[in-house]
Amino acid sequence: MLKNNMEIKKVNGINYVFRNGKKIKHKPWLSDLFSFVYDSIMEKSVFPKKFASSLEEHNKFMINELKEIHNKSVLELGTGSGNLSQLFPNDNEYVGVDISEGLLKIAYKKFRNADFKNFELFLCRAEDLPFQDKYFDVCLCNLSLNFFSDIEKVVKEINRTLKDGGFFICSVPVPERNKKKSIIRGTLYSENELKTILENNGFNYSSYNFVNGALLYFKAIKKL
Fold first, then answer.
1. How far apart are CA 102 and CA 17, in angstroms?
2. Rounded to two decimals, what is the model's pTM?
3. Which end of the chain is less congested by CB atoms within 10 angstroms, N or C?
4. Coil, strand, or helix at residue 35?
5. How many CA atoms does the CB half-sphere of 99 hold within 13 Å?
6. Which domains does the chain have, with CATH numbers?
């Protein structure tokens, strides 16, 4: 699974990444301080107030879209507190990455409690994935794409680590759907900008016909 110059050390269910024998360090993220209330903030504040959307409808959509994915290798960028453990089948190989150690600790418990037999969590950046080329069948990114520092690098890494014909499913806030003009953290790209970035980096883009406040849902298939 790992690139040749990468090594890992697992502690309490979290894989810490080393490159050429040196541990890769990450700037602590603010969410580490609030990881214990992260889910409550998302449910009671971010979805209804920032996104003007429904968490329940979001979860229903994701469950329906992911229900046919079985026995695949699945990468999630921005694992967060591990809520995806409740949204797709546990017979898949799941690999999740995040820069928040606190959230990964919560995610570990959720995936274990959801009876995932084959899952791994990595403390690393989406812009610098430690995984080998063409390893994953599916990549998912749920409400995190706007937080990455270099979206071009992220898309290139998704392309590199996906198998030919693999696909990327994403939900992300976009400015043109932010009708309330809420202050949404991170960098917001329009749908046209996202489509251009993906298609310029080896993907065929299509959006879902699903409206949920400020959120855009799309699928991008890696070109053969």
1. 16
2. 0.96
3. C
4. helix
5. 17
6. 6-222 (3.40.50.150)
